[in-house]
Amino acid sequence: MTIVVAGRDCTRELEPALRARAGQMARGSPRRRPAAFSSDIRALALREAGSEAQYLDELIRLLRYRHGVDTVAFSIPRRPGFLGRLSAAIKRRLWRALRYQHDRIVFRQNGINMLLVNALEFEDAQRRREADEWRRRLEALERAQPPADPAAGTAQGR
Where are the domains of the chain? Predict the structure, then answer.
């Protein structure tokens, strides 16, 4: 293997670091694993909502974090013995052959998921603005209308 950077042979300087990094990636080192979500980003937080509005707020907050499909490599489980090794080898080859198509589909799905989450956020914000406007208008109407005389209301109702 020869590593050329800017027309200069850098094999001797870079090869050990690249081989070590490749070994880590092949073993599935902890640095390559996805970062764990914090404890406040969990679906069980939805149970703690006291009302429907709080539930929807929490749901949209969680969707912002979890709208993407994960494509991180994983170890393929296998059974013990010769057939287990053989089936794992076949699965690895199939995965290598199909990974490109899988990543293309996942990329598209992530885009769709992101658009849907954004649409939900915008719709929620629009509905909140409309509800605030309705409240303001109702309060203005109630202030403009003089208080009703209870005695006059019963006489007209008969």
Answer: 1-33, 67-143
Q: Which tens digits make up the pLDDT trace of 130-147? A: 999 999 999 999 998 877
Of 99, 101, 38, 44, the C-alpha closest to 72 is: 99
- Cβ atoms of residues 44 and 50 within 8 Å: no
pLDDT in tens, 7-17: 888 888 888 88
Residue 121 to residue 61: CA distance in whole angstroms: 9
Length of the chain: 158
pTM: 0.50
Contact 31, 23 (CB under 8 A): no
CA angle centred on 77, ends 71 and 81, rounded to 5°: 155
| Axis crossing angle, helix 52-66 with helix 82-144, rounded to the nearest 10 | 140
